[in-house]
Design a protein that fits this description.
Blueprint (H helix, E strand, L loop, with lengths): L7 H7 L5 H14 L3 H7 L5 H12 L21 H6 L2 E6 L3 E6 L5 H11 L3 E6 L2 H27 L1
Parallel strand pairs: 2-3
Antiparallel strand pairs: 1-2
């Protein structure tokens, strides 16, 4: 029988990052607000975004990556729609003939994962986690890349 994955609160308790009182307080707030537990803990300043992402990486058995702007190939962004990339905070970072590796902020975003799977076909997808702060820089560069691509197309049409 397959073992159930640990819950986020359990992981954070085991790592000594939060106390039981903090967990219960955050769970009570979650029941009233429908916010993610991790978001509540970060907002309260009890854990950092990076600590949250490390715990989520453990929970979902996914690697947590640190993207460097100079290592990201903007050409890979053409494999996914810009609305998917920008609206769902994800970015393709590597491809092989069989797989597309996509960095994503929210591993619970079922809509994004479904869209990634559709747009990546026939390739399988491999998801890795990235912090929102880290991805923000990449998405700024991506917006510039899109803008420059549009400007090149417009110049080409004028000729």
């Amino acid at each position: 029988m397959k073992e159930m994955p640990k819950r986020l609160g359990e992981i954070l308790l085991e790592k000594g990052l939060i106390t039981e009182a903090q967990l219960y307080d955050a769970l009570a707030e979650q029941s009233l607000s429908n916010k993610f537990l991790g978001t509540i803990l970060v907002t309260k300043g009890w854990i950092t975004e990076h600590q949250l992402m490390e715990a989520l990486a453990e929970q979902f058995n996914m690697p947590l990556v640190e993207l460097k702007k100079d290592q990201v190939n903007m050409e890979l962004s053409n494999l996914l729609s810009s609305s998917l990339i920008l609206d769902h905070k994800c970015f393709p970072i590597e491809q092989t003939p069989d797989t597309l590796t996509v960095a994503i902020v929210n591993p619970l975003d079922a809509v994004a994962i479904s869209k990634i799977e559709q747009e990546a076909k026939p390739r399988k997808i491999k998801l890795v986690l990235v912090t929102e702060e880290n991805l923000k820089e990449i998405l700024l560069d991506y917006r510039r890349y899109i803008s420059q691509s549009i400007q090149r197309l417009l110049r080409r049409d004028k000729k």
